[in-house]
């Protein structure tokens, strides 16, 4: 019998509010949620309206709850979360609440419930918000820019297809110096907007943080709305968008942060809120990352690709002696190796703590965590490849994509099959390029291990 | 595997199943019938999300609702069992890197032989399974008993 989930209750507090009872988790505006006025003021010539302020507050509150409330590693992975949040327009928010809960359930796998109360205090966010953009930025393409290969490829594609057409980058890094570290020199003049708040996740923040892309994409949509931009490009390649849903692991809700169905639900929610539907587009939905980068390489559109960052770990914290910027072991790193190999691009071994294309063994100082991360990464990519022969037969996933994209299933199924098959070919090429006695080969079934 | 499958079925709320049955009976569209399901009954775990997708895939199959529900549930369960197998493969590879290939093959054989359909039919007929209990897997003893 399905047991009832224990509901975690979060109360978002204005300065004047009293601390809630101990049964609630307090989230204080200005303390646990800090809005970066500087980031807003530096890039602003449009005043936020009350609904925008509410959206930022709600999204930041969701991020706080997602980071603060731990998941259980066994048993039930999902959580039930209730948030009480102060907004300027409680009636409007009550009207969109079920749509918001649907978006959040899709991306996080959790059950969300909201209670809205009228905001009492003055707006701390009533300030100029977006870059001092001239009118030439009307019609810009808004690109969430993480600094990885996918968003890099989206920006390069935009330059390739639209020349100097205006772009507006939305990024999670704080300060332009951090963005410049991952941004090719020729694109540094592009205006950029950083996520304008920080969330206190506590000493043991929940690492899954599945609502990360919700924060990112909601801000991109806000930028679209405020600049009269023409579109929002999500650069994630096809496998990154839909692959994890086809190949889930264990009790975890699959990563769906860039799945078209989640983005479609986010569009529906924002359309209800604003009366205008933000036009999210996926320029690389039917390409693998390797294909997208290779295509751009052939047309001479990629320069400075080696500034991008794909590693999900802080390897210098794990191994302070290393000068590498990438661990070389996580799924992000192995996917990068596969992509660059497919695109015919070479990268120095020194980028990686360990170079799987050169080293047969893991480094002698590799820790248990390194081995575990590496093992899961190899099996993750191998399982994606193993799903290729039956991907087009996954009726539920095909129906979901077809419904979201407004296409026939008969049109979607072969595209999905081709995407997975291309990934399998690229993965095979990476495995073939490994040293004969590579630790990675030992994790693969015999047929793949030996080529 | 049967234990994992029973646990997954136990995670399906009766109200969610009833809603799926009702949606299948009322929907005859080739597109994803999002509106056919109750807005207040969002999926709260992976098998419910999978079941809703599979119902959508069968919405225009013109099957009697009970047959469609059975098939959709079996397909959803198969996906969830697949997720368990992947997790077991990964965990075995971490914990028993030398034996993992053999153990994974044994596990895959077990999956092929699993009678998921029977479990599903039993559950839809009213048999009650326990939801999200921790799996009592003891891989070390399995290794000892099947060297």
Question: In words, what does this structure look like?
Answer:
The complex is a heterodimer of chains A (451) and B (147). Chain A has 451 residues and is of the alpha/beta class. Chain A has helices at 37-42, 50-68, 90-108, 149-162, 176-182, 212-227, 238-246, 260-274, 289-298, 315-318, 331-343, 368-386, 395-405, 409-433, 439-442, 446-449, and strands at residues 7-13, 24-28, 33-35, 80-87, 111-118, 141-144, 167-171, 192-194, 197-199, 231-233, 280-281. In chain A, helix 3 links the parallel strand 4 (80-87) and strand 5 (111-118). The longest helix of chain A is centred in the C-terminal third of the chain and has 25 residues, at 409-433. Residues 126-131 of chain A have low confidence and may be disordered. In chain B, helix 2 runs parallel beside helix 3. Chain B is elongated. Chain B is mainly α and 147 residues long. Chain B starts with a helix and ends with a helix. The chains are: A alpha/beta (451), B mainly alpha (147). Chains A and B meet through helix 3, helix 12 and helix 13 of A and helix 3, helix 4 and helix 5 of B.
Summary of the model, kept short:
Chain A is an alpha/beta fold and 451 residues long. Chain A is built from 16 helices and 11 strands.
The Cα radius of gyration of chain B reads: 17 Å
Sheet-strand content of chain B, in percent, reads: under 5%
How can the largest sheet of chain B be summarized? Answer: none
Query: How many strands of chain A?
Result: 11
